[in-house]
Amino acid sequence: MKRKHKIEPGKVLLVLLLSLGGVVMIFPFIWMVLTSFKTFAESVALPIVWFPKEWNFNNYAQVLEKLDFITYYKNTIIYTGVVLFGQLFLCSLAGYSFARLKFRFKNLIFFLILAVLMVPPQMTLIPRYQMMNYLGWVDTYKGLIIPMIPSAYGTFFLRQFFMTLPRELEDSAKIDGCSYFRIYWNIMLPLCTSALVAYGIITAIATWNDLLWPLIVTNSNSMRVLSVAMACLQGQNGTKYQLLMAASVLSTIPTLVAFIIGQKHFIKGIALTGIKG
User: Fold this and answer.
1) In-domain check, residue 31
2) Is 114:230 a contact under the CB 8 Å cutoff?
3) Percent of the chain topping pLDDT 70
4) 20 in a structural domain
5) Are the beta carbons of 88 and 200 closer than 8 angstroms?
6) CA-to-CA distance for 208 and 141, rounded, in angstroms?
7) For residue 205, what pLDDT band results from cuts at 50, 70 and 90?
8) Local confidence band at 265 (pLDDT 50, 70, 90 cut-offs)
9) How many domains are there within the chain?
10) How far apart are alpha carbons 185 and 179 in whole angstroms?
């Protein structure tokens, strides 16, 4: 006889709550896509018009005509790509050092790095801008990218993962005569793929959507990123929401594709980084 699976009310409730949470999370994206095909009248109508009467693809054509999307995409890709790989290298190197090496004042230095997480980033905007202005880096790629590469959170995130790796691998490499950097580069780093992908997705999405720093440090149209260009679609006396939503859809596609490709490593990396403190 086949065994009947007992239905547990707790699990059913958990599934219902998670499903409800999923619907709440995905609803704004569905609304964004639907609004991108509406007319202006439909996008501001009350009561709400949920579905457009006619699918208006002209909104996307208007956005591409109104905004220099090629330039903005190029700037955003450069900004995101350099910050991403810079943070992955610098934070993984720092994380390995704090997790594996012994040096004077290590705990004090790590405590000071964690203290940076308690400071709101808005408080450092003026000093950062003044430094960029003093160096002559305002409205340049250097001023846009370099201040964003150091990350206290990234150092802490990757340190937690390095601490989960067995020390026997490191000891064996030392016996074979490997330097600390070679141990980090050839042994430890390949074992951190999940954590690197997880942190890489977090960093890429945050950098891709970043508005405040690019808005402050860039002035010319040729240096704008997508988030700043999209903010310009919001007028003082009125906003064409259908165009804003069309631009949002176009800017969201790369981050959505990146998450779909790396979601397995993302979930695994998030799960493993909190194992050991």
Assistant:
1) no
2) no
3) 91
4) no
5) yes
6) 15
7) confident
8) low
9) 1
10) 10
For residue 236, the domain's CATH number is 1.10.3720.10
Mean pLDDT within 163-178: 85
Residue pair 259/206 in contact by the 8 Å Cβ criterion: no
Within 13 Å of residue 64, how many CA atoms lie on the same side as its CB? 8
Non-local (6+) Cβ contacts of 186 within 8 A are 178
Question: What is the C-alpha separation between 17 and 75, in angstroms, rounded?
Answer: 40
Tell me what pLDDT residue 276 has: 45
Task: Kindly state whether residue 35 falls inside one of the protein's structural domains.
Answer: no
Average pLDDT of span 190-213: 87
Whether the predicted pLDDT of 29 surpasses 90? no
196: domain range?
A: 57-272
Q: Identify whether 28 is preceded by a cis peptide bond (ω within 30 of 0).
A: no
pLDDT score of 90: 94
Give the pLDDT of residue 143: 94
Query: Residues 204, 253, 58, 50: what is their CA dihedral angle, to the nearest 10 degrees?
Result: -110
What type of residue sits at position 51?
F
Residue written as token pair 């508005």: 211
Backbone φ/ψ region at 186: left (φ over 0), alpha (ψ -120 to 50), beta: alpha
**Contact yes or no for 83/203 (Cβ under 8 A):** yes
Residue 93 lies in a domain: yes
Residue 211 CA, distance from chain mean position? 12
Q: Tens digit of pLDDT for each residue in 111-157?
A: 999 898 888 888 889 999 999 999 999 999 999 999 999 999 999 99
Comparing 90 with 4, the larger pLDDT belongs to 90
Distance from C-alpha of 52 to C-alpha of 102, rounded to nearest angstrom: 63
How far lies 240's CA from each of 41, 70, 110, 122, in Å? Answer: 10, 21, 48, 29
